[in-house]
């Protein structure tokens, strides 16, 4: 599902490309964009990946949901220019998180039909 407001933005285009890459890994997501920021929500594992402009260009960012010793959140990021790397990292993180949450490996649609 895609919730869109207004005109296509670079963030929205990049978020859609990430979502399409994740879909090839069997990961369903929802895209929301507004005011030049886009979010790819992977709600099956409670993960939000956002696309934002920063000092080094466009990047995807997501929270690892692990607190440091100081009680702060730890985030990681990947440049949008490395789309396949971003897809691979987010897909791997989703799989690890799914296994922690549900105790099983997620089934990809193609695997279910074989």
Tell me about this structure:
The chain is an alpha+beta fold and 114 residues long. The protein has helices at 10-24, 83-102, 109-113; strands at 2-4, 30-34, 37-42, 47-54, 57-67, 73-79. Strands 1-2-3-4-5-6 form a 6-stranded mixed sheet, with helices on one face. Helix 1 crosses helix 2. Residues 110-114 have low confidence and may be disordered.
Describe the largest sheet.
Answer: 6 strands, mixed
| Radius of gyration using CA atoms only | 15 Å
Question: Structural class of the secondary structure composition?
Answer: alpha+beta
How far apart, in Å, are the first and last alpha carbons? Answer: 26 Å
Contiguous uncertain segments of 5+ residues: 110-114
- The share of residues in helices is 25-40%
**Number of separate strands:** 6
Shape: globular
Mean pLDDT: 86
């Amino acid at each position: 599902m895609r919730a869109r407001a207004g005109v296509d933005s670079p963030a929205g285009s990049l978020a859609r490309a990430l979502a399409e890459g994740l879909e090839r890994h069997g990961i369903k997501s929802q895209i929301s964009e507004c005011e030049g920021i886009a979010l790819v929500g992977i709600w099956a594992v409670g993960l939000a990946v956002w696309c934002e402009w920063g000092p080094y260009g466009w990047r995807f960012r997501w929270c690892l949901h692990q607190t440091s010793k100081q009680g702060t959140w730890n985030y990681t990021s990947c440049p949008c220019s490395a789309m396949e790397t971003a897809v691979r990292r987010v897909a791997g993180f989703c799989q690890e998180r799914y296994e922690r949450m549900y105790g099983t490996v997620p089934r990809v649609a193609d695997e279910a039909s074989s």
